[in-house]
Structures are given as C-alpha cells and as structure tokens.
Amino acid sequence: MAQLYQDLIIEILLWLPVKSVLRYRCLSKSLHAVIDSPKFINWHLSRSSQNFNLRKLIFPERSTKKFLVCDVNIDFEEDIIWLENPVSSSLKEVFGYCNGLVLLNRSVSQRKFGFDLWNPSTRQYREVPGYPFKVTPKVRIIGSGLGYDVSSDDYKALFMVCVERKGQLEVQVWICRLKSTIWKRAQNLPYLAYKIDSDQGSPGIGYFSDGSVHWLCTLFCSNRWKSEIVGFDVQKETFSLVSQPVCSIDSVKGVETKLHVLEGCLCISYVCSSWNNGVNQADLYMRKKDGVDQYTWTKLFSVMEPLFFYTWFDNLKVLGYSKRGDKILLDLGMDYMLSYDLEEKRFRKVEIDQSSNWDSPILGLLVESLVLCL
Q1: pLDDT of 123-146, one tens digit each?
Q2: Separation CA 296–CA 285 (nearest Å)
Q3: Judging by beta carbons within 10 Å of its beta carbon (0-12, 13-18, 19+), is residue 278 exposed, middle or buried?
Q4: Residue whose C-alpha is closest to residue 143's, from 218, 236, 68
Q5: What is the pLDDT of residues 65-91, one digit of tens each?
Q6: How many CA atoms within 13 Å lie on the side-chain side of 40?
Q7: CA dist., res. 92 & res. 282, Å (int)
Q8: DSSP structure string for 221-260
C-alpha cells in the first residue's frame, strides 16, 4: 500500500511543471531524493516533451542586454501567446541548447575563455572551466552544440575549431563531458567546410535530434560547394552526412535553407523570394524515424505568399506546435510571429502579451526540464 501511495505521488509529480515540482522537494527528504534522482528527471523530461504547455520561449532583449525566458501557453485559440514569469540572464553568445539546458559563452578575458551551463526552469547556473585551446585570429570557433549521450547519461558540449597553419585549414572537434568536465579531442571534421550556417550569428549552433547534433554547412562536394546537413553522433562521436528531402525550389538561385527542431524532430525549410513574380515560397519538411535506423522526410507545408505580405519570410524559424498539434508557431524576426494552420492552410499574426521588444530571431522554444547543471 505504501508503495502504491508513493507511485501515485510520483505519477502526479510527473505531470506538473518544474516550478511546482521544485516546491515539493521541501516536504520531505524522501521526496527530495526522488525528485533529484536521474530516473525521475528523465521521466519528467520525457513527459514534458509530450506536454505542449511546458515550454519556455527564450529571446534576446537588446535594451537590457539580457536573455528573457518566459513561460508559454501555445494554444493559439485567440492568436495570443501568454508570456509569464520571465527569467533573465546576462546576454552572451549562445553555443547550444538541449533538453532545457542552454550553453552560453563566458569571456573571462581576451585570452581566457570558458562557458556556462544554464537551466532557466530551475534557475541553476554552472561555470565550466575554459577550453584546452586558445582562441586567436588563427584559431576560431566556427560551430558549437550541446547533446545528450544516453549510454552514459551525460551531456556533451561540442566545439568545431578552425585552425590555420601555414596557409592550411583544418577543423578540429573538441568535446567536454559535462559531468566530469573532462575535455577530449575527437576526429577532425572530415569535410572541407566553407562555413556553418546559423541565424544566431557566429558560431553556427547545432541542433540536437535523434542522438546527434546537426549543422547546416557549406561543403565542397563533387567538385562544387553545396549546402549539406552534417550530423555528429554524440554517443559514437562520429560524423555523417544527412540526406535532404527532394524539394522543387532547392536548386533555385537565392533560396534560403535553414535547420530547425520541431518537437524533437529535425526540420529543414526552403524559402525563395522571387522578385520576378513578386511571390514568397516556403517549403517545410520534418524528418521522422521510419523503422529502426531509417528516416523519411515529410512535407509539413508548402505556401506561396505575395512579397509585400511578409517581407521577412527568408528569416523564417520554426518554433513549435500548438497544444492540439494543428498549428505551427513561426518566428520571422523583427518582433513578428505567425501561426500556420495545417488544416486550413493559412497564416495568422500572433500577438505577444509581453512589453519587451527584441530585434533579432528568437533563440528557440525550450522544453521545461529538471536536468541538473551540477
């Protein structure tokens, strides 16, 4: 009977948001131990990933030079996203995010660098020791990311470092295991990369999905430069190229291609602004597992809109589904957000109940998480 009672309490806690769960840590030592256990944290994270109300929107507010993180209710019933309980952190360069954790750059001095691990849901903050390499004009971080290794129940910070030696370039890959803060050098990037794309500036932020961190890179393949999806398996610590969907506008000159993650699945968007016929065209695809190791791309939508209607369409960033899963939230930057109805196939502007303003794309929609920074 006692075990049944405890199992019922745990089941109730799994459905609560992080703020409520943290309050119950103070009731007893046994509850404190349960809530802080890795098993419960992973259970709650899995449940949070299925609950569309447990989301946090993170965006830079330039006036205060901080990141704002707010609770989000994304049901779009009245075209309003309610933002409550803002949590702020000093505005720094973002290196990646995964399972509710955010990786932030921390510049101690011009010669000594490091990074911070931040969980906005629990408000935990942790400083991680500096890199095993010196950042100089000839040693640059061009890509970064944060991933979860399920085999070791550990998070890994990833850095792609471009090193110039005697006119030759190589891209080194450095990994920091965050439990032990032990650094390790992995294999070099096995492709000749021109750049790593990111709508957040430099370095290019990788997106974690299906056990790998993914970047959109411009690579030299088949005697030409081509935009490719590069994946890094966090557990095996190996690189691979990810096939892209067959898209009618992919080969059109001037098309904007961007990676996203939507509810844990890798997404890619192709946006083309044709000034000849005055039309924006946007195609969005989602990658889902089809079998044990097979993946397929599914087109979520393909739309054509007049250029004057949404002039910032090429900044399109996918954020998340609505609670019922029938709408998608899109950020166009410049304080402009849209919802797209998958059934009615139409856009609606989304009003935001928040006085803060931002002038760059939203970083992303984070899952609420109890994952410890320690």
Answers
A1: 888 888 777 777 777 788 888 999
A2: 10
A3: exposed
A4: 218
A5: 777 787 776 666 555 666 676 777 776
A6: 24
A7: 31
A8: ETTEEEEEEEEEETTTTEEEEEPPP--TTTTSTT-EEEEE
